[in-house]
Amino acid sequence: MLTVENLGISFVTRMGTNKAVDGISFTVEAGKITAIIGESGSGKSVACYSLLGLIPQPPGRIDSGRALFEGQDLLQLTEAQLRETRGRDIAMVFQDPMTCLNPYMTVGNQLMEPLRYHKKVSKAQARERALELLEEVGIRDPASTIDNYPHQFSGGMRQRVMIAMALINEPKLLIADEPTTALDVTIQAQILELLAALQKKRNIGILFISHDLAVVADIADTIVVMQEGKIVETGNRDDIFRHAQQPYTQKLLRAIPTGGKSEVLPKSETLLSIRNLSTWFRQGKTHVKAVDDVSFEIRRGEVLGLVGESGSGKSTIGRSILRLVPITSGEVIFDGTDITALAARELKNMRSRLQIIFQDPFASLNPRMTVFDTLAEPLLLHGLDNRSTVGASVLRLMDDVGLARSFVRKYPHEFSGGQRQRIAIGRALATRPEFVVADEPVSALDVTIQAQILDLMRELGKEYSLTILFISHDLAVVRKLADRIVVLQKGKIVEQARTSELFEQPQQPYTRQLLQSIPGRALRANAT
Amino acid sequence: MWRFVGYRLLQAIPVLLVVITVTFFLVRAAPGGPFSSEKAVIPEVKAALEAQYGLNLTLFQQYTSYLSDLTKGDLGPSFKYPGRSVNELIAAGFPVTAELGFYALLVALSIGGVAGIIASLRPNTAQDYIPMSAAMIGICMPSFLLGPILILVFGIYLEWLPVSGWGDIPGDKILPAVTLGSTYAAYVARLSRAGMLEVMSQDYIRTARAKGLPEWQVVTRHALRGGLIPVVAFLGPAFAGLLSGSFVVETIFQIPGLGRFYVQAAFNRDYTMILGATVFLATLIVVFNLLSDILAAWMNPRLRAQFAEQ
After folding, report:
1. Chain B contacts of A118, Cβ < 8 Å?
2. What is the pLDDT of residue A528?
3. Helix (H, G, I), strand (E, B) or coil at B147
4. Which of B15, B65, B126, B244 is the one with CA 20 to 30 A from B41?
5. Does any domain span residue A413?
6. Is there a contact between A86 and B202 if contact means CB atoms under 8 Å apart?
7. Which CATH number characterizes residue A403's domain?
8. Neighbour-count burial of B35, counting CB atoms closer than 10 A to its CB (0-12 exposed, 13-18 middle, 19+ buried)
9. Between helices B229-244 and B271-299, what is the axis angle to 10°?
10. Angle at which helices B86-107 and B271-299 pack, to 10 degrees?
11. Percent of chain B with pLDDT over 70
């Protein structure tokens, strides 16, 4: 149905010409799912956007190739002809449902727009069709939510709306650009299932873009692996997963988090003990019980995984421990001291022993501070170094987190996401803390980078003899690092167990549901 | 929402009190007085005048009596226009100034908004640089320079438009409105360009394009609302600025508005008139800022929901 041949795209800037896509060819068949896999910057999104004329030209430039869709070369169409195709024959679903819906328009109006524009149907008919589709994609009670604004929906629900919007004109081809990357694992599983079901029912072709092989393992028919603008390997799913030929594909496969760590639990004293912790937020006249009467302990040297979906209160627990949010009641006892009772000055001293690594390395580093300043600040603030000794300490930290010493005068924007997360880890470790809260430290990263950062954290954990509270929505990631796991739901603890026990014999239905959401089920079935 | 409005109005009371107090003592600290002139006034006459207007009381007594009159809405008698109260003078001058300000605001929004939107659609091209350079000139050019230039060009050389007056000859309102509005047009252009650029880079604009909408619909249906919120938030301060900044234009074009009374009052040491106009304008500024904040919040569905709760 779609045949792309020898597609080449460059970006022309003052710095020179940069070949983003270099002569790639692939096909999408009706009723089949073709997945394009690659890391950020591999050109996979650019290639797909160019088919619909959605890359800005200039700086973008299509150098070569054809993209035959139902006999027409998409690359030769005029802008007006392309507009006719976009949203009618070929529709798109984007990565981040939080930002891809217009916050100023009701969901219903956005949903009806493609239908009203392309098919010139009446408003009442369009609304009726929109309601049907919302129902079909699993929005509860569409009649009363259709006139809501996007912010009134959760991330997963918004992605369902996006999918409904893409399907409203019954397109023949759907391009889905990382449609589940911004979502929790459980929601991801639901959205993947929904996409597969809708695809079967309508017999449409899907071009699925992702950085994560595991995500497409369960749904893709054909897999195209891209690296630096070129296709590395193409094959059907089983071939790729069983007999990947190329080293790069094998590397991607290895990056999929599987298995856990096989160490014995440290037999040491309790370092941190949380007793009946509650953190409530006021919302209007009521309270949101973000954390509701939670108790657990962490031993010295242990890595405790804290797992739950968005809104389960896992991040709030991490922040409550560090007193970054005011707690409502309960105790946080760190090495014999109740942190919740500390005065401001005592808390400052305590802070050098407890640190946090945040999820988004783009937002949590000050863009106007060089790496040197970022790493030196905590050292100087806590009096661990003076002006003359701080330089050596910073370089040592850079070595530890695997950053070249020559980067020390650079600013955050000059680094990739993975490198930034290394900086953030370095900052957290600068004061030689005993305890670190790692709040979704790899969720914003590509899988290959994710694997590197997890390895780094494991090594550093040993080297610095750290105790870590590792917060994540992704059980597969937590499994690689954690000795024990606490599962949270709606601010309460559902289950806590040793990692291997939790994976082998989950006691609670909710835990089983989380385990089933881990992408790549087909992959694991193959492996066993 | 009403709680928010009530809170903001309560906040305004101390602000206004400070404005009144500072103005009251500042104007009195200035040398001279309402009844000093080159000609020597007989001491008895001066004393009688001062007694009539309460100037023989201590400064603090004058202050408290002014405040107590103010709570009744009485801004006191004018010192310079015998027999007329400040309330009457403001009532006479304000409608003219408000009308001028309103037209100027229309000029600012239409010229500035269109220029900013056009510039934002092709950033860093001639389509961007030309209107934005014009905007920069507009910001730099003071109205006492722009006014006479416009008079020279359109009034005297081309003879298209009258050079002065207000409501006497058709078209005599155009030049003052343009003169007063152009500076604000420049600000509006810069704000709307920045707002539109911000919105046009959002992911949901890409979504709109992916639906196949033509570019003008992408702009009008999806981008304008978010892009113009900064402009709406600026409307309040802008309108207040137009009212208080209109005195130069009113002087150039001989318009009998509040601005001229205000300036003359300062020259004449017309204490009550200065104070009255200050209090009046300060109140307007507070009210207009509040209104534009409410409007800007209302345009954003997310804030609207929070807002309705309060």
Report:
1. 212
2. 44
3. helix
4. B65
5. yes
6. no
7. 3.40.50.300
8. middle
9. 170
10. 40
11. 97
Q: What is the pLDDT of residue A207?
A: 92
Read off the tokens for A74.
């998409």
Q: Which two tokens stand for residue B164?
A: 């002065």
Assigned domain for A469 exists: yes
Topology (CATH level 3) of domain B93-309? MetI-like fold (1.10.3720)
Q: ipTM of this model?
A: 0.73
Strand partners, A287: A282
Helix ranges (H only) for A231-310 are 237-242, 247-255
Tell me, yes or no, whether A398 lies in a domain.
yes
Backbone Cα Rg of chain A: 25
Q: DSSP secondary-structure letter at A270? A: E
Q: Which two tokens stand for residue B230?
A: 């900064």
Separation of alpha carbons B179 and A349, rounded Å: 61
Over residues A403-461, the pLDDT tens digits come to 888 888 888 888 888 888 889 888 888 888 889 999 988 887 888 888 888 888 888 88
Q: Measured between alpha carbons, how far is A110 from A107 in angstroms, rounded to an integer?
A: 5
Per-residue pLDDT tens over the stretch A377-403: 988 888 888 888 888 889 888 888 888
Residue A472's SS3 state is: strand
Report which DSSP code applies to B109: I
* Domain annotation covers residue A401: yes
Return d(Cα A263, Cα A303) in angstroms, integer: 11
Q: Which of B204, B214, B217 sits opposite A102 (nearest CB)?
A: B204
In this structure, what are the phi and psi dihedrals at residue A145, rounded to the nearest 5 degrees? -105, -10
Mapped onto helix, strand or coil, the DSSP state of residue A285 is: coil
| Residue pairs between chains A and B whose CB atoms are closer than 8 Å | 75
**Which residues make Cβ contacts (< 8 Å) with residue B23, sequence separation at least 6?**
B274, B275, B278, B279
The amino acid occupying position A203 is N
Dump the DSSP string for A261-277.
--PPPP---EEEEEEEE
Q: How far apart are CA A7 and CA A21, in angstroms?
A: 7
Q: Show which of residues 271-310 on chain B sit within 8 Å of chain A, judged by CB atoms.
A: 299-302, 305, 309
3-state SS track over A8-69: EEEEEECCEEEEEEEEEEEEECCCCEEEEECCCCCCHHHHHHHHCCCCCCCCEEEEEEEEEE
All structural domains of chain B with their residue ranges: 93-309
Q: What is the domain extent for residue A464? A: 299-313+360-527
- A379 touches A395 (CB < 8 A): no
C-alpha distances (whole Å) from A245 to each of A225, A257, A468, B246 are 11, 20, 38, 77
Least confident of A453-467, B156-170, B178-192: B156-170
Phi then psi dihedrals of residue A249, to 5 deg? -60, -40
Q: In whole angstroms, what is the distance from residue B193 CA to residue B139 CA?
A: 15
Cβ of residue B265 closer than 8 Å to a chain A Cβ: no
Residue B151 DSSP code:
I
Residue in the block written with tokens 């990692």: A499
Please report residues of A whose CB lies closer than 8 A to that of B206: 54, 94, 100
CA atoms within 13 A on the CB side of A123: 3
Q: Mutate one of A92, A104, A106, A148 to test the B interface: name it (highest B CB count within 10 A).
A: A104
What pLDDT, on the 0 to 100 scale, is given for residue A267? 67
Number of domains in chain A: 1
